[in-house]
Amino acid sequence: MAAEHSPMEQFAIKPLIPIHVGGLDLSFTNSALFMVIAATVVTLLMVASFRGRSLVPSRIQSVAELLYEFVANMVESVCGSEGRKYFPFIFTLFTFILLCNLLGLLPYAFTVTSHIIITVALALVVFIGVTIIGFAKHGLGFLGLFAPHGVPGWIMPFLVPIEVFSYFVRPVSLSLRLFANMMAGHTMLKVIAGFVVLLGAWFGWVPFAFVVILTAFEILVALLQAYIFAILACVYLNDALHPSH
Amino acid sequence: MDASAAKLVAAGLAMIGVVGAGVGIGVLFGNYVSAGIRNPAAAPKMFPQVMIGMALSEATAIFSLVIALMLLFVF
Predict the structure, then answer these.
(1) Do A180 and B65 touch (CB under 8 A)?
(2) pLDDT value at position A1?
(3) Which residue in chain B is spatially nearest to A227 when comparing CA positions?
(4) Which partner from A58, A91, A190, A233 sits 20 to 30 angstroms from A74, CA to CA?
(5) How far apart are CA A127 and CA B44, in angstroms?
(6) In this predicted model, what pLDDT tens digit does every residue of B15-68 receive, in sequence order?
């Protein structure tokens, strides 16, 4: 099967505006284009909803309010009132990932979050930021995260390495979860869509119906993965704010 | 069996670990639904915990995916 017709073709990064600085390839790619689109859509939604502020919200204002309240409740319930300070970060993270996931579902669109470099960058921002917050707030007391209270002393030598390992594996699992879910979902969609062409007009409608169902499922996955990424960022933030178990 | 074929077979075998995450997520959501039917008022409150539990059980699947990807692309 030729490379241009494989289900992996959708993940190819194509430079749209080639920019080369020194030995670096800083081209404006289709990935960058869709990140810009996602950021623009979120900004436009927020700006448009704040234009006609009213007590009884208009349609677009209530969309923005729903989004805001959803994330605000999530931060509040996981991190407590101390987490309010970090709400803008979590909100940005959630809306950006959500829009990247949803835009990727449009035909011929590029899924930004199906590239591991993007999700690793996002996860490392969360991981490094949370670690800095933990040390800035509690100093060396943050290391108490690795030694839970009320555990018998003889278990400690086994427990502490496990806790340290599970701490450092967080960015790996956080980034790979989003990447693997998006990539697997989109590959599956394209494989099944390929069956429609192969089976032709007589039997093609069977996989076509399946594609419709799978697209609905992928919308659910897009919402769910953005939510999981945001709530895990909240959980990690909570560990940094209240390190004693 | 030459080395590259063994590598592909090993990557496939490594993905058997996903079974555990499948069972885990099934048990998790099954219990969430049955608990939600018993006490629908408490169900929305438990949803974030369900999501965290799902993320944690999915992490084990991700570990086996990492091993499979390493077998395919690193060795």
Answers:
(1) yes
(2) 41
(3) B51
(4) A58
(5) 28
(6) 999 999 999 999 999 999 999 999 999 888 888 889 888 888 888 888 888 888
CB pair distance less than 8 Å for A228 and B66: no
Amino acid identity, position A134: G
- What pLDDT is stored for residue A5 in this prediction? 64
Q: According to the 3-state scheme, what is the secondary structure of chain A?
A: CCHHHCCCHHHCCCEEECCEECCEECCEEHHHHHHHHHHHHHHHHHHHHHHCCCCCCCHHHHHHHHHHHHHHHHHHHHHCHHHHHHHHHHHHHHHHHHHHHHHCCCCCCCCHHHCHHHHHHHHHHHHHHHHHHHHHHHHHHHHHHHCCCCCCHHHHHHHHHHHHHHHHCHHHHHHHHHHHHHHHHHHHHHHHHHHHHHHHHHHCHHHHHHHHHHHHHHHHHHHHHHHHHHHHHHHHHHHHHCCCC
- pTM over 0.90? The answer is no
Q: Residue A55: is its pLDDT beyond 80?
A: no
Q: Which residue has the tokens 């999700």?
A: A119
A192 is written with which tokens?
Answer: 């099944």
Packing angle between helix B18-38 and helix B43-73, nearest 10 degrees? 170
- Using one digit for the tens of pLDDT, what is the confidence trace for A75-117? 998 888 888 999 999 999 999 999 999 999 988 888 999 998 9
When CB atoms are compared, the residue of A74, A169, A177 closest to B55 is: A177
